[in-house]
Amino acid sequence: MRSKSAIAARRTPHPVFWVIAIALVAIAVTLVARDGGQGAAYAQPVQTAGARGVFAFSGQLDKGSHGVYMVDLDAMTIWVYEYNAQKNCLRLAAARSYRYDRYLENYNVCDLPPEAVEQMIEEQRRYKLESNETP
After folding, report:
1. Is residue 65 situated within a structural domain?
2. How many structural domains comprise the chain?
């Protein structure tokens, strides 16, 4: 059977825990006082204009074929290179501008060139303007 003094001695925290707690409070106070409570993340870059440039990522094109997808956000184009394992080379599989595609509201078809999409968008805009002008 344990004595009451042994149980009471266990309930009091070790002095190391008090030192750690006081050090954590001091660090927190210093951080809050230094940045004025703003919570700035110093290691993260801030982007004001959004992401730009060319992004590339790999993916599977079909059951036995893999490729590299590339997106140019500035030129609004996407293109895909297919990897040919027999020839050990990349082949341009597809390329397209999505400049006008992003304005389509409801459309799904494979054989639609970007010029036709541009015309559809212009017609859609004209229709909306005309419908807003009529009472």
Report:
1. yes
2. 3
